[in-house]
Amino acid sequence: MKRHLLSAADLDLPDALLILDTAAELAAVADRPVKKLPTLRGRTVVNLFFEDSTRTRISFEAAAKRLSADVINFAAKGSSVSKGESLKDTALTLEAMGADAVVIRHSASGAPHRLATSGWIRGSVVNAGDGTHEHPTQALLDAFTMRRHLAGGVGDLAGLDVVIVGDVLHSRVARSNVLLLRTLGAKVTLIAPPTLLPVGVELWPCSVSYDLDSSLPTADVVMMLRVQRERMSAAYFPSAREYSRRYGLDVNRMKLLQPHTIVMHPGPMNRGMEIAAEVADSPRSVIVEQVTNGVSVRMAVLYLLLGGSELSDGSNGVPVSEGRPL
Amino acid sequence: MSANQEMRPVLDAADVGRALTRISHEIVERTRGGDVVLLGIPTRGVPIANRIGERIADVVGHQIPVGSLDITMYRDDLRLRPARALERTELPPGGIDGAVVVLVDDVLFSGRTIRAALDALGDIGRPRSVQLAVLVDRGHRELPIRADYVGKNLPTSLRENVRVQLVEIDGVDGVLLGGPDEEGTPE
Amino acid sequence: MSFVLRNVRPLGGAEVDIRISAGRISAIELSGTIATDGAIEVLGAGMVLLPGLVDLHTHLREPGREDAETVETGTRAAALGGFTAVHAMANTDPVADTAGVVEQVWRLGRASGWCDVRPVGAVTLGLAGSQLAELGAMADSPAAVRVFSDDGKCVWDAVIMRRALEYVKAFDGVIAQHAQEPRLTEGAQMNEGAMSALLGLTGWPAVAEEAIIARDVLLTEHVRSRLHVCHVSTAGSVEIIRWAKSRGIDVTAEVTPHHLLLTDDLVATYDPRYKVNPPLRTAADVEALRDGLADGTIDAVATDHAPHPIEDKDCEWADASPGMLGLEDALAVVNTTMVESGRLDWAGVAARMSVAPAGIGRLSEHGRPIAVGEPANLVIFDPSASYVVDPNAGASRSRNNPYAGRELTGRVRATFLHGDPTVLDGELVARSNV
User: Fold this and answer.
1) Which residue on chain A is closest to C205 by alpha carbon?
2) What is the DSSP letter of A197?
3) Quick one: how many helices (H) and strands (E) in chain A?
4) Which of A68, B105, C167, C416 gives the lowest tally of CB atoms within 10 Å of its CB?
């Protein structure tokens, strides 16, 4: 494992499997009388949220607390130069407070990268969603959920047919999923109106289609992305109704799915827009389970980044001197 | 492995088998077969627990619950090495509440693994009592911990390493003693 | 004071000695044949002698952002880079949209004495794109403005652009357009393409530049005026300009050193040092720009030297100010990208970095041949000395050097401005000593 988790591309197959396997073990902690492990006692995890996201923050908070880390929530309002403190000064403050890991959510793509590479802080940086770039722990929890339902909970996702539908252009979830699912061997198809696909998407390791209906019958997983109604005003699509008609997952489209196919959504959902309420609440929907799995996956990430030795060179490599046998 | 060449056998397969049989009988005697749960500590404690479980079943005439208890997250030396992969924790369906839990490991050394195991046990249930069975006790305790069942007391120097080999993992049964071991010596 | 430059190679040719006296070249003779005669000797040791470089595109930041650069510090950097004249861009605070502001900048340049400073006047009031600035007043002022630009912003309104092109004909002015279609580049952070898709940064499509250039060359043809295209960055733009020139349209174009060397994959670092407008493009664009500069489609290299204080770059990519330093390393970049690859000879370098920009800016004392009687605006360049760029070593007040840590080839050893050295042995010459 690298020292930071900034992008799903930071994870090779052994890393990804290590996280998923570790998460599988840690999932059991939720069922125990004492839902806590002492592993990260004395370590400080800062949740640095420049952008509101209660669900992601509490997921990381629960994960860190179950590992007995001290958690500091730092809600920094606004990021631009005109408002408030700069990222650098915030980072220096966190460093002075002794943060061992900073979980950062930011509206600017690349902000976690800046935090990790600028030399402002020494701790590990975990990207909890940056702008329209990436959200690697979301991709991990999605892969974990797929593996549980469709791959017996072990190994990779080779051969799995995953369809990701919606606003790919603005979606960090889509970017991270494409990268991670490719590492895990799944076959990904992105489906969106052409306006909501980035120029350059043709170079991504996935296929791209403008037509939802033709991709549904073979899909093992259908992941619906949140589409903000405001995109309409920037002419990405003519109306919410037209979007919903062409790209929304409704009851009729659900009938095209294979019996085992699961429906996912990173939340928060726009019911009636990209997904019909009947679909969101159907037995195929694993949307609530995604939230549960998020805690396990984030525990695994925090444990693997913070649970081991911290070396002077900042790597997680072989330590200089072997410790005494336990 | 070059390290293996410097190690000499101190127990052969037959010795290991006899030691496990003796431990099994002692467990039956001491616990009278009632409410015993065997929990092997990965890696090599797990197959040892399974073998002891089979031997006890032969004696008492019914299966007894056997599981595994990973103590990685409770270790006190986590920060001395890179974060390691977790082993499986599998509790028997009946759980451990009210049971006599016998922790099973291959080697007892500093006692820190067992300390971690006791902490882990406390977080997953409340056994009536906890006992400890090890194939080899090599001494050099750093904590006030002792084994209830010992296959072989093996006097060692701190510089030496003890390696337990099991058919399930290593393809052969035996215990080796010798010079520095690249992989370190799991207790 | 007179000087003898020993063993220099004008435009890379044979070694000669050159005498400079009274601000002009007074003799050019075979090596070793000019007597020192009380003059100060400058040993050229076979280095290349070029006419002093002329930059069409420099942000000196004064007035308004003296924390980033001043006329004094910016012209020091220019001298170190071998420049003897720079055009100071109009996007200062206040904007150089009146005779008063351009005259102030011009006077600051005269006072600094490190190189000639020619102010660029804004095309529209406050760079707002809606009302023409008093172009004639700026042209008639002592600053004698000939280049007008809203650089940083595009004169996007076709009618305003047309009028500006027409109006400057009265005083032989030129409109230097920052070609950027504003609606297509709202919130744009980097070149739109494979990298922007991957990095989740809003794209700045090549077409937003090319569409404006296409429109403007047609407008220029229609009103028979003169257009200069700032910082051409795409292969498509080169094609359009090549086409326009083939039609006889009076258009000139510049390319920056950074667009000749750097590509958009550097953005993967999210290091705002690489944020610039127009953005770094692809390797294919870089190739096309080098070809265009070599074949004369692109007339000039202009630095777009854009200093920013540390805090404007020490932040998230999206919040960072776009712009890069360029003056001090421009000639080395051109040497590394164009000369060493055989695309330009030294006469070509002189044409692109001195003669053409002086011509576009209508500077009579710069971009002249190296000949007896000509003004002694000269630079001695050692094309074989390589160096690792140290952003802290520069004379600019700012540190946003995109080449930091890179090895470049070629160093300016001496710069002469109107017969006096501003740089000797690669160091600034204290002005009081001259």
Assistant:
1) A199
2) S
3) 10, 9
4) A68
Q: How far is the C-alpha of C44 from the C-alpha of A60, rounded, in Å?
A: 66
Give a yes or no: residue C126 inside a domain. Answer: yes
- Per the structure, how many domains does chain C have? 1
Instruction: Please state, in angstroms and rounded to a whole number, the distance separating the CA atoms of residues B161 and B172.
Output: 18
What chain B holds in terms of domains, given with CATH numbers, is: 2-75+88-178 (3.40.50.2020)
Q: State yes or no: pLDDT of A315 exceeds 50.
A: no
- Active-site residue among C17, C264, C304, C329? C304
Give the residue numbers of A annotated as catalytic, written as ranges.
55-56, 83, 105, 135
**Is the peptide bond between C63 and the residue preceding it cis, with omega within 30 degrees of 0?**
yes
For tokens 């490599």, what's the residue? A317
Tokens (6 digits) for A80: 């631009």
Higher pLDDT, A320 or B14: B14
Q: Which CATH superfamily is domain A136-287 in?
A: Aspartate/ornithine carbamoyltransferase (3.40.50.1370)
Could you tell me the CATH number of the domain that includes residue C128? 3.20.20.140
Q: Out of A25, A303, A325, name the one closest to residue B110 (CB).
A: A325
pTM for this prediction: 0.91
How would residue B83 be classed by pLDDT, with cut points 50, 70 and 90? confident
Asked whether residue C417 is assigned to any structural domain, the reply reads no
In chain A, where does the domain assigned CATH 3.40.50.1370 lie? 8-135+291-306, 136-287
pLDDT, tens digit (0-9, with 9 covering 90-100), for C292-339: 999 999 999 999 999 999 999 999 999 999 999 999 999 999 999 999
Mention every residue, 6+ apart, whose C-beta is less than 8 A from residue A183.
A8, A11, A12, A13, A16
A134 pLDDT exceeds 80? yes
Say how far apart CA C251 and CA C244 lie, in whole Å. Answer: 7
In-domain check, residue C426? no
Q: Residue A80 — pLDDT band, cuts 50, 70, 90?
A: very low
The interface pTM score, or ipTM, of the predicted complex is: 0.90
Q: Do B123 and A37 touch (CB under 8 A)?
A: yes
Give kind and range of the element (H or E) at residue A68: none
Distance CA C423, CA C429 (A): 5
CATH architecture of the region A8-135+291-306: 3-Layer(aba) Sandwich (3.40)
Q: What is the mean pLDDT of residues C147-172?
A: 98
Q: Which residues, 6 or more positions from C275, have their beta carbon under 8 angstroms from its beta carbon?
A: C189, C190, C267, C313, C317, C320, C321, C322, C323
- Whether C304 sits among the annotated catalytic residues: the reply is yes
Tell if the CB–CB gap between A110 and C196 is shorter than 8 Å.
no
- What are the DSSP E strand ranges found in B41-128? 66-68, 100-108
Crossing angle, helix A287-306 and helix A136-150, to 10 degrees?
120
